[in-house]
Amino acid sequence: MKRSAFPFSASSTRVRVGCPAHNCGGRCLLVAHIEHGRIIRLEADDRPDSVAAPQLRACPRGRAYLRRQYHPDRLLYPLKRVGKRGAGQFQRISWDEALDTVAAQLERVKSKYGNQALFVPYGTGSYNQLNGSHVARRLMNLYGGCLGIYNSYSWAAINAATPTVWGTLITGNQRQDWLNSRYIIMWGWNPAEMRDGTNSDYFIKLARQNGAKVVCIDPRHSLSAAALADEWIAIRPGTDAAMMTAMAYVMLTEGLLDVAFINTYCIGWDAAHMPPGLEDQESYSEYLLGARDGTPKTPAWAEAITAVPAATIARIAREYATRKPAVLYQGYGMQRRTYGEQVVRAGAVLSAITGNFGIAGGWASGLALQAPDGGGKWTVFPVGQNPVRAAIPVFLWTEAVLRGKSMTPADGLIGADHLESDIKLIYAVATNCLINQHANVNRSAHILQDESKVEFLVVQDNFLTPTARFADIVLPACTQFETWGVEDGWKYSDEVILQPKLVEPPAECKSDYRICAEIAERLGLGEAYTEGRDEKAWVEWCLNVYRSTRFPDLPTLDEFLERNLGAWSRPVVKPAIAFEDFRRDPARHPLPTPSGKVEIFSRQLYEFGKPEEVPPIPKYIQEKESPFHPVSSAQRRFPLQAIGHHTLARVHSTHANSDWLNEAFPQRVFINPLDAAARGIADGDWVRVWNERGQLVLPARVTPRILPGVVDIPQGAWWTPDARGVDFGGCINVLTSEQWTPFAFGTAQHTIMVEVEKHR
Fold first, then answer.
1. pTM, two decimal places
2. Each residue's pLDDT tens digit, 198-239
3. 3-class DSSP assignment, residue 216
4. Are strands 473-476 and 79-81 parallel, antiparallel or unpaired?
5. Which of 124, 205, 383, 684 has the highest local Cβ count within 10 Å?
6. Is 38 a member of any domain?
7. CATH at residue 514
8. What is the pLDDT confidence band of residue 489, given thresholds at 50, 70 and 90?
């Protein structure tokens, strides 16, 4: 076939294509039915299936994608704001006017404030190698750079805390090895809804069929608890580290641990095995026994905190310590809390002291990127080096708007001692993180409404999202069915998935790459930006990089298209085991930690100098915004904890406007019958959920599948305020706090206290 030819028939054909990537936690394959230039149907992966290379079967979000693709509210033309910021009042303009304005504003802000005043925020609304924020970062880097970011909204605490124990983020065995496990704890982990790797739920199901006992510990009886677990243990949010600590106490006091083994592989377990020069510091066993604080961390101690019966805590400790090999898989919601680093370290230490690492069927916990190379999510498209060395944590962008010039390394700033400018221009590509997905929506809206702070905001997206409503210029982008792209496996799996262009974009929509290329042209960087390649040519370039670095057997682009492959997978015949060499010979294969061992006591955290919030050993630290806060007016007013799980209705905020998914998974607040009865609330009643940061109104779902004292509002619903500022869209971030974790400077959005009452 000719290289330039459109590869698919315009009449009727079936094409395997990667599901549009929106950071759902999976990477799946769809079969698109195309007739007369329009996608009329989507099916799931139809290729051969095996444990070594399972099908990449899409969830309801992928199967319902046509409702997004052909949604009547698609952005079709460039827009210019004509009203007050945030009012959502725009007029249609030409592409020339839109891009000339963007280029002129870039020039103006750069000239007046410098490159540090330019900012591309975190966002995953379009998320493959040729779409989304990658292409904007390449543009900015060629233009002299912009203020950098590090970490993510999803993984901040676990990303920072895991290496303080293991020295690396690659702490997971390949998932086929779960079939060798005898005991699996899904701790705050919900792969049946939020995915966390295509087929993770499938492998848990196979492990259970193979004889493993599966325990789910979660405040809510999730779909994963219902479909995958033998036992559900309801736990009070924010107290997981207390239960983990009490489990370690049981193991220690009941002689379930091999202390000689622990001291061979770990540092900081007891006073005799502390880091050199820190022998006088508190060891982990001293903390468990209460040798210094006078409080033994017994199951009874933990029961009062967690609401989990002491007998259950002790039983789970015994089962995990003795029924080996075992997996303790940590979810991410519990580390998006005030002291999210502690639960990560506590779980990783449990796996270490029980010897459930470096062996088949075990799991070292933490972030758990797969051995041997970390798996997917590589950025292959060449964004280049950012000439601006300064970077902030992604979650602190509002701080950099309000007080950027006063931010220091104490605020998480890296690469510089201070910033030369506050953020003055934001180029937001495929992100709803400025408003909807950021904490404390009302605060964020107030910040963006002030044009003396962010002087220019351009948003590039498929829809007029809550974030786009605050833009000065809105640029209509293609969906990923309307341009070329390629992606690899998400966290797990060795695979590459092609996303060929299936249909032409509607009206005047352009791809993210093309928009950036045309801005680059206006800035005198056109040739440097494109290097003479269009999207399809860059896909071929990316495939060549994958082939030369990871997958030598990867088909060429022509082979992908001619054979309608859609995806290529490298079968996992013998699952890789993280830390296998270290377990076999710790002296010859030390860990990449300062001590070369598993660091129960971390010198890095000790030297951080904030022992009350960032202790060098994992501890349970009571959250200030919690049911245990000293009696105050705030506690009396807001007695319920709120959580916001990832729902099958959305990928974060993507699909929030899908009628099919909203019908299947309507937005509601889930409340226990005991809490509902105390407030006179019946199932289906409209209720007000509120705290000092805001209020929202939505229906109640009264159900015993949520722990008493806790309510659940699925995250990602679009903020839809009325004239008084009351949200009727069900956006939980109206209620969340902008405070961050003390070590990772990550989001603590899951730490929320609220009240619920019947709406009148």
1. 0.96
2. 999 999 999 999 999 999 999 999 999 999 999 999 999 999
3. strand
4. antiparallel
5. 124
6. no
7. 3.40.50.740
8. confident
